[in-house]
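Slide 14.
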Amino acid sequence: MSNQINLYKEFFPYNEVPKIVFDDKFYERYIPDDIFITDTTFRDGQQSMSTFTKNQIVKLYDFMHKIDNNTGVIRQTEFFLYNPNDRAAVEKCREMDYEFPQITSWIRAKESDFQLVKDMGIKETGILMSCSDYHIFKKLGWDRETAMKNYIKILEAALTAGVKPRCHFEDLTRADVINFVLPLAKKLNELGTDAGVEIKIRACDTLGVGLPYAGAALPRSVIALISLLRTEAG
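Slide 15: predicted structure.
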């Protein structure tokens, strides 16, 4: 794994719009037979407006269950656990005992965050794993080696506690796929295999700069990202 920072300035110049670059490498498209929704209303949905009250969260969760109509199309929903209001809402939603949407949480790769998951008895949690050097070096103040160690540490804690981890590869469409993303994904999958747990990896196009075009270059090519994660990461 390379620890050299790469901000892809040829793709993302500061004074111009992001560039569409083609390298004429073509990858197999993957379209799953089973397509479903993971709802994030109670997480990033609250970041665009005032936060929900406990009763609003419970009512919205009930609405989602009715809309889903026991099909599992709205498969899961994600909750913050950081404040008493969020935790109380999770408990009220649990009392409904609905199969769908399944109740999961979302945390940063921090031990204190994971302690909340354990305290609440959550069965599956998303774990923020920022992948771009913009996030790793500029926002978190880490390098790639430190980021990988921190992500692995939390994943191991989840596996030990019997919590299913869902790894959110944040800002993936600005990340060094070959030299950081794939080595990280391989290591996480190896740990999951050893523990007998299938690791979920979510490919997050945080800024909406992913491209659907065949032959588009990494890191913006969605086709290449999904294909490489499926075929090269184990």
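Speaker note: The first strand starts at residue 37 and ends at 39.
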